[in-house]
Write a structure and sequence with these properties.
This protein has about 220 residues and is an alpha+beta fold. It is about 35% helix and about 15% strand. The protein has two domains: about 1-85, PGBD-like superfamily/PGBD (Muramoyl-pentapeptide Carboxypeptidase, domain 1, Orthogonal Bundle); about 100-215, Alpha-Beta Complex (endopeptidase fold (from Nostoc punctiforme)), CATH 3.90.1720. Strand 6 (about 185-190) and strand 7 (about 195-200) form a beta hairpin. The two termini are about 30 Å apart.
Length: about 220
């Protein structure tokens, strides 16, 4: 649970910038920076989990690089990225990801809000009402129910999920009957009927067995 909450905190970010030099550096912000920070936090480095690449993060990266025999320049290039996250570094673009950041940040503001069947407000949400409400805060209109939300956007494979994608499950009835917002690190936030707005893992026995697919709206 502690690891899940770390992920929840680190994904509260604002704008994704990136740069064209093939590395992440001080000044960059966004989903990729948040994911890197999450790994650094888990490894015990003293990093502020805010999704922004600042001097403290650069110092932590240098220490990590030294311990792994990588040139300690404080930059996140392919070698450092791979050593940290165990996967190939994505192509860096200058495309802003402000909307995705706003959605993730807003979704965290309602942790603990109770589940209410048919609920569409901070007084109580059901799963699709919560997703609809969060996306509306970012200026994006979604249908009201999970089954219709499942028909919106682009189908995304599990391996291609990024923060802000919608994940769907078949629970109490056939087809898409439950929906959540993917956070990264295999976690998603949703309106749980037993716990209200909460974070869970796609890898858990229950959710993995009921998972049916994902959609990218952004």
């Amino acid at each position: 649970m502690r690891a899940l909450m770390i992920v929840a905190l680190l994904l509260s970010f604002s704008v994704s910038t990136g740069n064209a030099a093939g590395v992440y550096r001080v000044g960059d912000q966004g989903t990729d920076i948040a994911e890197i920070q999450g790994k650094l936090v888990i490894l015990g480095y003293d990093v502020m989990a805010d999704g922004a690449f600042g001097p403290a993060m650069a110092d932590a990266v240098k220490e990590f690089q030294k311990s792994h025999g990588i040139k300690a320049d404080g930059l996140i290039g392919p070698a450092t990225y791979s050593a940290l996250l165990g996967k190939e570094m994505p192509e860096i673009t200058s495309t802003a990801n402000y909307v995705s950041g706003r959605i993730i940040q807003s979704s965290m503001d309602y942790l603990g809000v109770p589940y209410v069947f048919g609920g569409t407000s901070p007084y109580g949400f059901d799963c699709s009402g919560y997703v609809q409400y969060i996306f509306a805060l970012a200026g994006i209109s979604l249908p009201r129910t999970a089954d219709v939300q499942y028909e919106v956007g682009l189908p995304i494979s599990t391996t291609d999920l990024v923060a802000g994608d919608l994940v769907f499950f078949s629970t109490y009835t056939y087809g898409a009957s439950h929906v959540g917002i993917y956070l990264g690190e295999n976690n998603f936030i949703h309106a749980s009927s037993s716990r209200g707005i909460a974070i869970d893992s796609l890898g858990s026995s229950y959710w993995s067995s009921h998972y049916i697919g994902a959609r990218r709206i952004l």
